[in-house]
């Protein structure tokens, strides 16, 4: 007995696939499936998060529709995966709100924070909001640095706590003790597999998106988005170190490390998320999970808006538009932080945890056979 209809369907499919095993070379899902005789909910959540939705097993399958077995692994695992984000979310009560109205919640939060910052600045000094500010400390004409650091530090720490609790629940549910996350070689293997998106390659030929012709464009856009996000995070981290260790205040010159990292990261986010969105629109309807599209769109929209508003702020930071652009950018970043633990953002973290577990299982199997 499974908790949802999608988990029941995933159990049926994995049972069929475990008899067939034709796709065992395509990705990690099938070898991990072959290590099991039965599939509890936790096993299915683990397998769903190992799947990278490359689509290859749908087009390769002799039992996919219109065959009566109706085997559609990518769409079913995508639905189970999306449900697993809500299942493991912390605090659990927050998840349904975002699952149903992810995009609306994210936009409302971004607008609310931007309006709060604009109102805060206007109440103090309208000239500070619409005037031109240049040189070190110019951004803090909108809001004092300490107030800004407190507000965004709290949102960031909340996101880290909620994400950490969620992945801890996932890890424990899949049967691994939290005190023994794995030795270094498993971590290294999982790191390599996730950093290269190894299982988004359809077994070596490329991802299948709109039809059965393989292409690497989706992997490229994923990389641009993920590495763009990391560069933006690195930019903010370096700027924070500058502030507290060197006493240097933002904004910095165009050639300085935080600006170079932020510009490259922002460009990666804008191009990567636009490419992912276009690929989603073109994706074969048969391999899509239509029930959780709102969650995916919210994730893409918030990352795109983060990159775009950051680049606009960089372009117009010496003009009178700086105050409004900074408020909008900060509103978007705040909304991204607080919605992160309840949306598609967690897929990267759960996928890493699933890859870590897979590296451990595979390693133990090889040693047991020796
Ligand atoms: S997806 Fe189809 S071909 Fe692949 S293992 Fe499952 S049943 Fe066999
Ligand atoms: S869609 Fe790709 S990653 Fe997912 S199970 Fe099928 S072959 Fe594996």
Percent of residues in helices comes to 55-70%
Low-confidence stretches: none
Q: Encode the helix/strand succession as letters.
A: HHHHHHHHHEEHHHHH
Largest sheet: 2 strands, antiparallel
Secondary-structure-based class equals mainly alpha
Indicate the proportion of strand residues.
Answer: under 5%
Tell me the strand order in the biggest sheet: 1-2
Give the domain tally: 2
Shape: elongated
* Helix segment tally: 14
Describe this structure in words.
By secondary structure, the chain is mainly α. The chain folds into 2 domains: 83 residues, no CATH class; 274 residues, no CATH class. It contains 14 helices and 2 strands; from the N terminus they run H-H-H-H-H-H-H-H-H-E-E-H-H-H-H-H. Strands 1-2 form a two-stranded antiparallel sheet. Helix 8 packs parallel to helix 14 and helix 12 packs antiparallel against helix 13. The chain binds iron/sulfur cluster (2 copies).
Topology of this structure?
Layout: H1 5-20, H2 29-34, H3 41-50, H4 56-60, H5 73-88, H6 95-124, H7 126-130, H8 145-173, H9 184-195, E1 207-208, E2 214-215, H10 217-246, H11 257-282, H12 293-315, H13 322-339, H14 346-369
Antiparallel strand pairs: 1-2
Helix pairs in contact: 1-5, 3-5, 3-14, 6-12, 6-13, 8-13, 8-14, 9-14, 10-11, 11-12, 12-13
The protein binds iron/sulfur cluster (2 copies).
Give a quick set of tags describing it.
370 residues, mainly alpha, 2 domains, 2 strands, 68% helix, 1% strand, elongated, binds iron/sulfur cluster
């Amino acid at each position: 007995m499974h908790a949802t209809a999608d988990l029941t369907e995933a159990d049926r499919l994995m049972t069929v696939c475990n008899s067939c095993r034709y796709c065992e070379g395509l990705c990690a899902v099938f070898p991990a499936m072959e290590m099991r005789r039965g599939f509890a909910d936790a096993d299915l959540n683990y397998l769903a998060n190992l799947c990278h939705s490359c689509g290859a097993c749908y087009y390769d399958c002799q039992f996919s529709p219109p065959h009566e077995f109706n085997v559609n692994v990518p769409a079913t695992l995508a639905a189970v995966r999306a449900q697993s984000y809500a299942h493991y979310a912390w605090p659990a009560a927050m998840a349904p709100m975002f699952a149903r109205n992810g995009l609306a919640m994210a936009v409302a939060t971004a607008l609310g924070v931007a309006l709060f910052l604009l109102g805060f600045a206007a109440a103090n000094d309208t000239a500070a909001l619409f005037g031109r500010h240049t040189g070190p400390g110019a951004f803090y004409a909108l809001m004092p640095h300490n107030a800004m650091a407190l507000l965004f530090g709290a949102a960031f720490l909340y996101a880290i706590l909620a994400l950490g609790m969620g992945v801890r629940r996932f890890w424990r549910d899949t049967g691994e003790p939290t005190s023994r996350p794995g030795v270094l070689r498993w971590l290294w293997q999982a790191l390599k597999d996730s950093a290269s998106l190894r299982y988004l390659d359809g077994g070596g030929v490329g991802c299948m998106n709109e039809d059965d012709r393989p292409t690497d464009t989706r992997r490229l856009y994923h990389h641009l988005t993920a590495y763009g996000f990391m560069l933006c995070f690195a930019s903010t981290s370096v700027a924070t170190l500058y502030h507290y260790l060197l006493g240097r205040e933002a904004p910095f010159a165009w050639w300085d490390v935080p600006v170079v990292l932020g510009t490259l990261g922002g460009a990666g986010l804008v191009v990567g998320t636009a490419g992912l969105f276009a690929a989603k629109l073109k994706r074969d309807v048969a391999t899509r999970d239509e029930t959780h599209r709102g969650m995916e769109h919210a994730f893409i929209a918030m990352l795109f808006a983060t990159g775009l508003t950051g680049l606009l702020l960089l372009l117009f930071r010496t003009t009178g538009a700086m105050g409004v652009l900074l408020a909008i950018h900060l509103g978007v970043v705040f909304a991204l932080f607080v919605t992160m633990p309840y949306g598609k953002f967690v897929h990267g973290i759960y996928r890493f945890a699933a890859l870590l577990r897979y590296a451990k299982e595979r390693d133990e199997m090889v040693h047991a056979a020796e």
